[in-house]
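Blinded run. Sample ID left blank on purpose so nobody reads anything into the name before looking at the predicted structure. Input follows.
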Amino acid sequence: MNPQTISDEYLKLQQELHQNPSYGVASLAFAPIVADLIRQTHVQSVCDYGAGKKRLLEGLGEAGVVPAQYLPYDPVFPEYGSPQAADLVCCIDVLEHIEPEHLDAVLHELASITVGLGFFSIHMGPAGKTLSDGRNAHLIQQPSSWWLPRICQYFNVLHLASHEMMGKGIWLIVQRIPSA
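Blinded prediction complete.
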């Protein structure tokens, strides 16, 4: 049995938050970077982990890139199915939303489905949205020095960049460590 990646209570809070049309728009900002990565690496399959309303696919289309296989996953949208292995796994503005006690399980799951490369973006500070229980939507607000050792347990970092899109953060291109 796979370790749990989200609690039932938090899933309900995320379902409520996803009713807001302006929640989950970060993928649009990062789509041009992902489109360039797809063009350069010629990947055939893209898993959008934490896909939300599939804004990455929308942004890729606007950039003129249509992956041969687009595999969305988000526990809020069960119709997407389970996470699928892909040449490129994108996890955009997701990890900071994970319950801290489930972060290791999520990173393990990401490693298990990353066939080629991963593209991850992580915001470091508070979100503009609040959960209905009063908590900030970014459950983990930590600097890159906190994130990198955790990511490096599962992935080799091929590229790391800081950004200020929608708040301070980092984006990474990673490759799964074979033993992870």
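Unblinding after everyone has recorded impressions. The radius of gyration is 15 Å.
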